[in-house]
Design a protein that fits this description.
This protein has 313 residues and is of the alpha/beta class. Helices cover 37% and strands 18% of the residues. Strand 10 (236-237) and strand 11 (240-241) form a beta hairpin.
Length: 313
């Protein structure tokens, strides 16, 4: 694999797939414009995000850009097929505000992985994808995902159809198994190496360093809890209501940051990149203003003393 040149921030495109709320095409486009204008050149999506809506919107945007100037990743493991029971409903079960005229079918087989890549290329209108991740196999059949899905991805890489392969999960133990049991290039870990919690630091990150696997760190705001200077009781945490003890911990972090005149979201964005295994941090939003804020926060000056104080706290 030729070394992929990630920037400090990548764009996570779940939100432009109508995660939690409906976003119109113009708003999605403005958000992507803000990311590109701010220098972001890595974009991540998945069929799961809005039942293909995220891929379609991202592809329409990237088709206008020079192909050698960006990195794009998508995911395999979930095929989108027509929903025979569609009756005008929405995909609220999976938190996307889109019609549920399609349904997800888990298929990590070689044929399924190849079909997923072909479908993604068609939705996006691109001639190739740089990175493919096996998406959330632990939500369906982990053993089959590891034994079938990851070898299938390796075959695509060997054939030159993708530049890099990996796994995209929320569970550090699952990601660690993938690093130790398969020949992958990347791990996308969501929410498990953040300013708030670092279970990935115990086994996953050391295993990545030892095996030459780079880490794409996602969900660094823990679903929004760390996205403001004052973590709110009604904020979400891991896509659900925030437990009281987690909220209290987040507020303690915010108080320490305030003592040093640093915004909590800035510390949350910059913390993961301090680890040598982390190649880039991916942040998702559907608002252009939030993209610009995140770019400023990612480069905001932070005194070294703050990190020591946070660790002590």
């Amino acid at each position: 694999m030729s070394e992929l040149a990630f920037g400090p921030l990548g764009f996570g495109a779940a939100s432009i797939g109508n995660l939690y709320r409906s976003v119109d095409d113009a708003t999605a486009r403005a958000t992507l414009d803000a990311a590109w204008d701010g220098g972001i050149r890595y974009f991540d999506t998945a069929p799961h995000y809005g039942l293909g809506l995220s891929e379609r919107r991202l592809g329409a945007f990237l088709r206008e850009k020079p192909r050698d100037e960006f990195i794009v990743s998508t995911k395999v493991g979930r095929l989108l097929v027509p929903n025979p029971d569609f009756s005008g409903g929405t995909d609220h079960e999976h938190a996307f505000a889109v019609p549920n005229d399609l349904m997800r079918v888990y298929d990590p087989s070689e044929a399924g992985v190849r079909r997923s890549l072909e479908d993604s290329l068609e939705r996006m209108g691109l001639d190739h994808i740089d990175i493919l991740y096996l998406h959330d196999p632990d939500g369906y059949d982990l053993e089959r995902g590891l034994s079938e899905g990851l070898p299938a991805l390796a075959h695509l890489r060997e054939e030159g159809l993708v530049r890099a392969i990996g796994i995209g999960v929320n569970d550090a133990a699952v990601a660690t198994r993938a690093v130790l049991e398969a020949d992958i290039d990347l791990v996308m870990i969501a929410g498990r190496y953040t300013l708030l919690e670092q279970p990935a630091a115990e086994e996953l990150l050391p295993a990545c360093l030892e095996n030459g696997v780079r880490v794409v760190d996602a969900a660094v705001f823990n679903s929004g809890l760390l996205a403001t200077n004052t973590p709110a009781a009604d904020a979400s945490y891991n896509y659900t209501a925030v437990p009281a003890e987690v909220l209290e911990r987040a507020r303690r972090l915010a108080a320490v940051c305030a003592e040093f005149g640093v915004e909590l979201p800035a510390a949350a964005l910059q913390f993961p990149a301090r680890h040598p295994a982390v190649a880039t941090v991916v942040v998702g939003t559907s608002r252009a203003e939030a993209v610009r804020e995140n770019l400023l926060r990612a480069s905001a000056p932070i005194p070294e003393e703050l990190w020591a104080a946070l660790e002590a706290a």
